[in-house]
């Protein structure tokens, strides 16, 4: 029995190595992609992020519109990250071992877009908190189904010397989607005079309702555009690929592959895991509590039914749009900064900048001054969306990009789960339901993440070599 297991393990390693070598050989002979091609490849990410931008900017407010208290918000978010913990590696592995007329990755982000559009259409009509929580679960799961193969999609198609640029363009799409999603309720209210208040007929404002309809159209439309305009390369040895698909495809095989891959993470992924964990603790605290913090701590709203509360939530959307605008601009500069001072160094500086900008909110009481803090967070957000993936992609086997990208997203999902499980208690007993203090604590987590970004003392020279760029 032991001999058979050893033989199977050796055969598996050999298959992976041989397949990886085939992918590398193909990759070396691929032509350079034009800017337009890279843009088409990443356009679907704009739709994904538009949906996520609506979710991040509005879901806490929707829960409060439906009657939730501040300390209840974290637990209402928990279904989404728990599902992501399971969905991401399974979808990643399935997309590693899929080949269809639509290609390898494209069937997954198209299917996710269809499900996400359905969730977006029904969200504004949630009759209760728990219906909204279930729809949030569906929306987040759908976005994960689309996103994980999209990360691998860029690594699959682009030559090595264009990958940082590819992820930077992806970050631009993320920023543009989030800008438009975050600002849309404010635009609908101030330019189109659409009602932004609640009443007996509309528990959720019409500005939010119409924004979610727009998100459904954009999510599905941009993903379809990418599917149509960007073909995928077939496996070099399709017969062998189909054998691997039969052996390692399927949900149960994906779970086993996820567990084995988790136990054998590349050293780069292990290094990045700590950074990602604290980075996303900070980011999730920000997304979860910033909109209500603006409404209550900056605008002075005392209840979610007041006009001040609606105005504050809309202004938080403007803040989201601004930091995502900074993200778009800074994403174009990141590849040059990474080339000059190293990926690790620039990521450390960006996270520190974001942490300081959130801590500074303690001293801001004016809505216009609040906008300045968004510059620092936008820089951190740009780096969080680009640099970890740029550092990771060259350290994982090309054939296994999907599953490793899914596992890497554990370190985004796990901090979300930690916040969902623990932060309600922290809010209730330590922060006394003060939304602003929760955001400031997020800034502290970002600074801790920046500290972990620095290599160990004996490895400081590794920051600067040209090969790390």
Most strands sheet: none
Distance linking N and C termini: 46 Å
**Unreliably modeled segments:** 1-27, 456-469
Radius of gyration: 22 Å
Q: With helices defined by DSSP (H or I, 4 residues minimum), what is the helix count?
A: 17
User: What is the averaged pLDDT score?
Assistant: 80
Output the helix-strand order.
HHHHHHHHHHHHHHHHH
**Count of beta strands:** 0
Question: From the helix content, strand content and strand pairing, which structural class follows?
Answer: mainly alpha
Helix content: over 70%
- Shape verdict: globular
What fraction of the residues are assigned to beta strands by DSSP? Answer: under 5%
How would you describe what is shown here?
The relative contact order is 0.15. This protein starts with a helix and ends in a 16-residue tail after the last helix. With 469 residues, it is mostly helical. The radius of gyration is 22 Å and the shape is globular. It has helices at residues 2-28, 35-65, 73-76, 79-96, 106-122, 129-157, 163-190, 206-229, 238-248, 251-263, 267-298, 307-341, 343-359, 367-393, 401-408, 410-429, 435-453.
């Amino acid at each position: 029995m032991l001999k058979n297991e050893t033989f199977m393990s050796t055969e598996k390693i050999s298959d992976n190595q041989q397949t990886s070598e085939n992918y590398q050989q193909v990759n070396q002979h691929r032509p350079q992609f034009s800017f337009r091609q890279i843009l088409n490849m990443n356009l679907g990410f704009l739709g994904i992020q538009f949906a996520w931008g609506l979710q991040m900017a509005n879901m806490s407010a929707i829960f409060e519109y439906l009657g939730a208290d501040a300390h209840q918000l974290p637990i209402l978010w928990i279904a989404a990250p728990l599902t992501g913990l399971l969905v991401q590696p399974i979808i990643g592995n399935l997309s590693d071992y899929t080949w269809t007329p639509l290609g390898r990755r494209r069937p997954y982000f198209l299917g996710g877009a269809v499900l996400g559009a359905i969730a977006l259409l029904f969200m504004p009509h949630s009759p209760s908190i728990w219906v909204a929580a279930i729809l949030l679960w569906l929306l987040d799961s759908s976005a994960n189904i689309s996103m994980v193969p999209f990360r691998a999609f860029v690594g699959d198609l682009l030559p090595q010397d264009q990958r940082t640029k590819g992820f930077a363009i992806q970050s631009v799409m993320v920023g543009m989607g989030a800008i438009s999603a975050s600002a849309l309720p404010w635009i609908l209210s101030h330019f189109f005079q659409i009602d932004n208040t609640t009443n007996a007929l509309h528990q959720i404002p019409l500005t939010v309702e119409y924004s979610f309809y727009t998100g459904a159209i954009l999510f599905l439309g941009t993903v379809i555009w990418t599917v149509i305009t960007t073909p995928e390369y077939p496996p070099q040895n399709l017969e062998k690929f189909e054998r691997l698909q039969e052996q390692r495809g399927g949900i149960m095989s994906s779970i086993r592959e996820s567990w084995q891959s988790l136990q054998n993470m590349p050293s780069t992924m292990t290094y990045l895991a700590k950074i990602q964990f604290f980075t996303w603790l900070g980011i999730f605290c920000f997304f979860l509590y910033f909109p209500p913090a603006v409404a209550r701590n900056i605008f002075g709203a005392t209840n979610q039914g007041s006009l001040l509360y609606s105005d504050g939530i809309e202004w938080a959307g403007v803040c989201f749009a601004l930091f995502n605008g900074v993200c778009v601009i800074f994403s174009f500069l990141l590849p040059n900064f990474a080339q000059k001072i190293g990926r690790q160094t620039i990521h450390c500086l960006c996270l520190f900048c974001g942490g300081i900008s959130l801590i500074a909110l303690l001293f801001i009481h004016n809505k216009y001054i609040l906008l300045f803090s968004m510059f620092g967070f936008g820089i951190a957000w740009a780096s969080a969306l680009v640099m970890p993936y740029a550092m990771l992609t060259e350290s994982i086997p090309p054939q296994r990009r999907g599953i490793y990208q899914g596992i890497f997203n554990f370190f985004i999902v796990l901090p979300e789960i930690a916040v969902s499980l623990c932060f309600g208690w922290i809010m209730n007993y330590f922060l006394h339901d003060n939304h602003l203090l929760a955001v400031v604590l997020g800034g502290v987590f970002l600074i801790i993440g920046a500290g972990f970004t620095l290599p160990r003392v004996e490895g400081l020279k590794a920051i600067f070599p040209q090969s790390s760029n």
